[in-house]
Structures are given as C-alpha cells and as structure tokens.
Amino acid sequence: MKTDQETPKIKSSLIAGVMICGIVAGLIYWFNQESPPSHTPQQVVSPQPQSKTIVYETLEKKDKNIKRYPSTSVELKNISLHKKPDDHASPTTLKRAGRFLRGDDLERFSDEKVYLPTVNTPNPNWKEKLGHELLRFQPEGVKVALAHEQSYLSISKGKGRYMELIVVNYINPVSGNTAFRALADSETGQLIDTWDQTHSERPVQIKFTQHQD
Q: What are the C-alpha distances in Å from 50 to residues 72, 79, 209?
C-alpha cells in the first residue's frame, strides 16, 4: 500500500508530466507555424505579352494571287493618308449586328427585333477580294497598304448592306504613290465610294470599276 507521504510525490510527478507535455505541444505548434511549407511552392506564371494590333496590311499580287501581310517599316514610310482614331471613325453610336449603322431610319432599325433584309453577307476573305479589285490593272511591283477603319451596316430604302470603311495607300516605286478613303462591299470587296484622294508628285493612275448603290 502507498503511504500518505508518497501521494504528494505522485501528484507532483503527474503535474510535472502534464506541464512538460503542454510545453512540447506548444513547441511543435510554434515550429509548424514558423517552418516553410513542405510542399513545392506554386510557380509564378509571367503574363504573356499581348500581340500588337495590326493597323496596316500590305496587299501584293503574286502569280495572280493576293498575298497579305503586316506592312513593313519601309512600306509605312510611303503612307500619305493615315487611319483615323477609332473614336472618330463613326458619326453615330447606333449599332446592329455588332456594326455601326449609317443611312436612313437608323433609330428604327437599331432595334434587332425589326426585320431588316440585307443584299449581301459579310465574307471573311473580303480583303483578298478587295486586293484583286485594287491590283488587277496595276503592273507587277505595285502594292497596297490597307487600313481598316470601321465596319458598317448601311441602310437604304429599307434594305441593309454590309460595308467596310478602309484607307487605301498605293505604293508604286515607279509612278509615285496615291491614297484615298473608300467604302467596300463586305462580301465582294468591290469599291462602293471613294473620297479624300491624295497624290504624290508622280501619282499612279488608279483604275477600278466603281460600284454604286
């Protein structure tokens, strides 16, 4: 049997054991808080550089085909008519089918619920078709630096026509350079109207079939 003198010793030992366990647990918790995580840290992914918006593209006739590529710095030096800022390209804010409206009765036809028949359909290859239109009468070596300003849906007599507002700069190393703004059909690439024509000292003679509404 345990004596009365042994009982306080046992209690003291138990208290000391509990205190030691508490200290050890505290040290373990502190160590886990201060130590770096054992797992591999997440990699930091550097943002990818955004691709530059191509403002001017060069159209060149090669073996009866139209080659299209971003205009070079040398070609850009020959540009006399420049693209307007995007916020100056359209006289109206009314839109339909993601395009700015121009023409007649715009308020009415800006409502997508109002039926609007169209005479053409946008073609993703309209620039190549335009290149054939612009270069078919030009000698080998003549190029066109093309800038796209805006896409329109033009309304006349209750019908819509998809159009592209463009800036055309002819680059002719022999006869000189010339430039103009134009509206082109979004399906065929045919020119609808031209204005703002500028000439160099020896302007190239532009020949094309102009298509009116």
A: 20, 26, 40
